[in-house]
Write a structure and sequence with these properties.
The chain has about 400 residues and is an alpha/beta fold. The protein is about 25% helix and about 30% strand.
């Protein structure tokens, strides 16, 4: 039974700091493991999730990565979505995340074709359903697309698309609670540590919870939480904008198109959404959610209008901002134990692909906690120790 929020428990086998998609996935997999019988407490400072990265994302999933582990994590994420009723349903309910299997289309100029082809070979070797198209093939398949300056495109023909992230998050949270996880509306403000172990977390409400394991799943705030435990974590806020527009012409089967300069666009309801990442020198650590339309006017709109001529005449109707939990070293997830703090586990730094990889991350973290190792998918490549060892994981398909 869940502990009342006004009376936090004094101890827990696992304290998960952060109840977003990664933290809730971790709580679900821990409480679903028949070997685990401990208490899981999830501390989330904003149970409305109004500012959460999960619900402010574009809600997409793809297999088109250049790193095999990233591909396999997202493949598990897709398999999880297809089996969501059995996994996350409570009392026989059905869960509709509104998945649109339209695929991703990565476009490359001649300068980028070799990388696209190498990525394609890696994806095929991992069993991803992807097709490599030349300009003629692109034009035949997508007559609304301008192929000027395009040398090749890689299209996900299955298991890629977009869905409602809020519905998925709420399903994870509800199932984890049904399985016994305790969710606290609170904030971790201090971490007590003795030598190589975390002893307890202290809460803004004044409570104190001793813990066997602390899992840091605090999204963009993970660097701050790690610092409370006396450790460093290269994770910061990076603000991203999603712009919504209307157009007279409709392309409902349009995939999520990624242009060579990183601008992306896809259908959403009766309209379209689009965005891009700013240049690194114009992309500071930024915890606010204030909107800026300059990127749309100066970069995004000119790019999509060149690539889809129908988008020369559009009407901007809405926009929102969200945060990446940005790994400043190599833009990939950090999954595993801290080498000097044995019971501190990280699940952070996904830099934009945390939502689609949350099921695989939650499974991996729960395996580490319960079984002491990765069981189903070896994610040692994403260990915290890679930074000190000088072995960054350089993902070439960053969106």
């Amino acid at each position: 039974m869940n502990q009342p929020l006004s009376s936090p428990p004094e101890s827990a086998d696992v304290v998960v700091v952060g109840g977003g998609i990664v933290g809730s996935s971790t709580a679900y997999f821990l409480t679903a493991d028949p070997v685990f019988s401990g208490r899981v407490v999830v501390v989330e400072r904003d149970p409305t999730y109004e500012r959460a990265s999960t619900v402010r994302s574009a809600g997409s999933i793809r297999q088109q990565f250049s790193t095999p582990e990233n591909i396999r994590m997202s493949q598990f994420g897709m398999a999880f979505l297809r089996d969501i009723d059995r996994r996350l349903g409570v009392d026989g309910e059905r869960i509709d995340v509104g998945f649109r299997e339209n695929g991703y289309l990565f476009l490359a100029t001649e300068a980028g074709r070799a990388v696209l082809e190498a990525n394609h070979a890696t994806q095929r070797a991992c069993g991803a359903a992807v097709a490599l198209l030349d300009p003629a093939g692109l034009a035949a398949r997508f007559p609304w697309l301008s192929t000027a300056g395009i040398a090749a495109g890689s299209l996900g023909t299955a298991n890629e698309g977009w869905f409602d992230p809020h519905t998925l998050l709420m399903a994870f949270r509800r199932k984890a609670r049904a399985q016994g996880a305790i969710y606290l509306h609170d904030e971790v403000v201090a971490v007590e540590r003795t030598g190589d172990r975390v002893d307890a977390v202290r809460l803004a409400s004044g409570g104190r919870i001793t813990c066997g394991t602390m899992v840091c799943a605090a999204g963009p705030n993970a660097g701050r939480v790690a610092a409370l435990a006396g450790t460093e974590l290269p994770v910061e806020h990076r603000k991203r904008f999603v712009y919504v527009f209307d157009c007279r012409e409709r392309f409902p089967a349009m995939p999520l198109v990624i242009c060579p300069n990183g601008v992306w666009v896809r259908p959403e309801g009766a309209g379209y959404v689009c965005g891009t990442s700013p240049p690194e020198e114009e992309d500071p650590d930024c915890p606010d959610l204030e909107l800026d339309y300059r990127l749309f006017e100066d970069v995004v709109w000119p790019t999509i209008a060149e690539r889809v001529p129908a988008f020369e005449s559009i009407r901007l109707s809405n926009a929102w901002a969200g945060h990446y939990d940005y790994n400043t070293v190599d833009h990939n997830g950090i999954i595993g134990r801290h080498p000097a703090v044995a019971n501190l586990v990280f699940a952070n730094g996904f830099s934009g692909h945390g939502l689609q990889q949350a099921p695989a991350t939650g499974r991996a973290v729960s395996e580490l906690v319960v079984h002491g190792r990765f069981v189903t998918l070896d994610l040692a490549r994403f260990a915290y120790t890679r930074f000190a060892e000088g072995r960054p994981v350089l993902e070439l398909n960053v969106v």
